[in-house]
UniProtKB/TrEMBL annotation:
GO terms for molecular function: cysteine-type peptidase activity. InterPro entries: Papain-like_cys_pep_sf, Pept_asp_AS, Pept_his_AS, Peptidase_C1A, Peptidase_C1A_C, Peptidase_C1A_papain-like. Belongs to the peptidase C1 family. Residues 25-213 form the Peptidase C1A papain C-terminal domain. Coiled coil: none annotated. CDD domains: Peptidase_C1A. One of its GO terms (biological process) is proteolysis. It comes from the Eukaryota. This is (pine wood nematode) hypothetical protein. Keywords: Disulfide bond.
Length: 216
């Protein structure tokens, strides 16, 4: 697909329904994909470090929720350990103290893309790599395959999930190629396609791109 990062250059679609808030998972934060776009190598990064080391920071609340920008700020300033050196344990309902291993992932900068500017999202995706975005995931529960064309609920969109945009294409309609975190049994082997250009699922409400060089 046009603008698509090969799926072997992103970390696996790990399953964590209800395990913890998706804002804290580094693959939601585009770091492995951004690095892979530059180096061709993927190192799974530690979600546990983000949870343990940013809880109570300006509104971040461990397994109960957090903010993409605060997580990205941490990775920019502190870097992030490999998942194998700081394994994920918060699915057991506890948050251990902040402990870090050797840093293997870091970004130089990150940028929030203006709201509802899917044209800019497409440009940044093509030039820089994957985007980290928030969405309303309610209509994803029964998704199987194909291009999802969601209807805006009467009460409006509700931001409750974070995913990674990896590419885009067109098959009768324009769409985004999006990586979810509900396991490879869900959707199209852990991915889904979403109607592009209509702010579907509020996908343009909050989106970030990471820079792994000093280009910006």
């Amino acid at each position: 697909m046009v603008g698509s990062l090969p799926r072997d250059q992103v970390s696996h679609c790990r399953k964590f329904h209800g395990a913890t808030n998706p804002y804290y998972f580094p693959d939601r934060l585009i770091i492995p994909g951004a690095v892979a776009a530059k180096t061709g190598k993927v190192v799974p990064l530690s979600p546990q470090e983000l949870i343990s080391c940013t809880t109570n920071a300006n509104g971040n609340d461990g397994c109960n929720g957090g903010y993409l920008d605060l997580a990205l700020k941490y990775v920019k300033e502190e870097g992030l350990s490999a998942a194998k050196s700081s394994p994920f344990v918060s699915s057991r309902g506890r948050i251990p103290q902040c402990q870090v291993g050797r840093k293997v992932g870091k970004i130089k900068n990150y940028k929030q893309i203006p709201k509802r500017r899917e044209d800019l999202m497409q440009r940044f995706l093509y030039n820089q790599g994957p985007l980290s975005v928030t969405i309303d995931a309610r209509q994803l529960r029964h998704y199987k395959h194909g291009v999802l064309r969601p209807r805006k609920p009467a009460g409006g969109w509700q931001i409750n999930h974070a995913v990674t945009i990896l590419g885009y294409g067109e098959e009768k309609v324009p769409f985004w190629i999006v990586k979810n975190s509900w396991g490879t049994e869900w959707g199209e082997k852990g991915f889904f396609r979403l109607l592009r250009g209509q702010n579907s699922l509020a996908i343009g409400q909050e989106s970030y791109v990471a820079f792994v060089s000093n280009e910006n």
